[in-house]
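TICKET #2291
ISSUE: user wants both folds in one file
ATTACHMENT 1:
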Amino acid sequence: MTSPRRDRGAPRRAVRIGITGPIGCGKSTVAGWLGERPGVVAIDADRVARDVLDQGGPALDAVIVRFGREYLRPDGELDRAALGRLVFSDPIALRDLEAIVHPAVRPRVLAAIAEAERGGAEAVLVEAIKLVEGGLANECDEIWLVACDPEVQRERLIERGSTPTDGDQRIAAQGDIVGRIRTVVGRVIDSSGDLATTLQDAQRALEEALQATRT
């Protein structure tokens, strides 16, 4: 991971914080809420990943070559639901999709970070499920893990509209994400409890990260 630049003669670089965690555990809620604070910019890398698969996006053609035109809707857009059903039930398909998408996402996220820093952002949050696997963790000063109890995670996915089977497939497709990234995680935010407590913990973590660069 990189460190904030401290050269007195150069502009201060923003604190870069990567926020990741299993699906349904609230990383988007945490990043979005903190991103409303003045001086903080939140970048949703998962949203960027969806954008690069839009019609005319840099990754769509490669996805269709790999998976077939049956995943292309009549209007020329990707049939995301159909592709999602495939990749969340087939680890090889998921790996191949990520190998196409991640290289297209990285330059867009780096450009967004640079734009935020030119605008004087004090902190830039990069939110992504595959923060480490996509290589974005190397651009961050801190990595936060937002995680919750597995039963709470499953319940939240079902509340969001997933069937129990679909929810279980999506959780299983991520494997032991917590175990894989634990060695690079600097802070853990447990979102098992109520939203107010989770956001309070996130606010405290951000203040500590900012304070560390001021000393």
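ATTACHMENT 2:
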Amino acid sequence: MAEALFKLMLNSEGDHWRVESAGTWAEAGLPASQKAQQVIAEMGGDLSQHRSRPVERSLLDEFDLILTMEQGQKEALRAEFPELAPKVFGLREILSQAGDIRDPHGSSLEDYQATAREIALILGTGLEKIRSLTGNQASPG
């Protein structure tokens, strides 16, 4: 959901960034849950073609910034790839907050909606911080 929400926000801002997601402990090739697809569709996005994939070093090397939903994910990535640690952050850290983004997997549609709203709020409020962390002070073109 975070990937789709960030893409929606960047498109509305006129930004053109490469945004992709991967799971720290994900199984490859699984579609987004029906509830995630519904919530993102309600917000103007589309997850129908999304497929899960695990994090791999070659993928991480391609990005200027890596955001995780949970502190455990951040710690796992920093431990496995210590040289990438300076570009790995928990999403809440963008707003100088601690804690995890709750994974709604297996819960109610309302929980998915609440998580999506939380992610969208953090991304929207923290866009300038994200730009500064990636070195994109101005809107990239």
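RESOLUTION: both attachments delivered.
EXTRA DETAIL ON ATTACHMENT 2: Helices lie at 2-13, 34-42, 57-60, 71-80, 109-125, 127-134.
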